[in-house]
Amino acid sequence: MNTILDAICPCHLVVNEFGEIEHLGPGLRKLLKQEKCLYENLFAVFDLTRPAGLKSIQNVLDYTGRTIIMHLRKAPDIKLRAIAVLDPQSNNIVMNLGFVIGVQNAIRKFGLTMKDFAPTDLVPEMLYLIEANQATMSASKRLTLRLQGAKALAEE
């Protein structure tokens, strides 16, 4: 099952009933520096901020299927949105994570690429639009400065 999850949800993790991280998707491994976080407690690696009160694995189980906001303890500026689902076969919790605000910072900080996002994730398209907008604004600014210079020269 982990192979399937790695392909369709690169930013996921699997947590056992004791709250220990048993598997990290390839995108999440980049954020967590490879395998260093395996078998660490979920709450030692992540701070689950919303909803308030998610302090135990049972709280997470009670909140399955709903949005959880969290961040890496080592990088609190990288906010993540997660959804947790119980795998009835293994009794593990599978959490699929996505970026909230600050995805550009995460890409720069951790060297993320297209492979680190789910094929259905809209983040790459959003980043393309941001880059296109910045290029357009830059070209517009250059043209405006050139026109202002030409106007000043013509007025002289």
Characterise the protein shown here:
With 156 residues, this protein is α+β, with helices and mostly antiparallel strands. The chain has a single domain (2-121), classed as 2-Layer Sandwich (Beta-Lactamase), CATH 3.30.450.260. Helix content is 41%, strand content 26%. Strands 2-1-6-5-4-3 form a 6-stranded antiparallel beta sheet. The protein starts with a helix and ends with a helix. 23% of the residues are buried.
Write down the CATH topology: Beta-Lactamase
- Overall, the morphology is elongated
CATH superfamily: Haem NO binding associated domain
Please give the number of β-strands: 6
Q: What's the Cα radius of gyration?
A: 21 Å
Write the layout of secondary structure elements.
Elements: H1 2-8, E1 12-15, E2 21-24, H2 26-31, H3 42-45, E3 46-50, H4 57-62, E4 67-72, E5 75-87, E6 92-99, H5 103-110, H6 123-155
Keywords:
156 residues; alpha+beta; Beta-Lactamase; six-stranded antiparallel beta sheet; 6 helices; 41% helix; 26% strand
Briefly characterize the structure.
The chain has 156 residues and is of the alpha+beta class. It has six helices and six strands. A hairpin with a 2-residue loop joins β4 and β5.
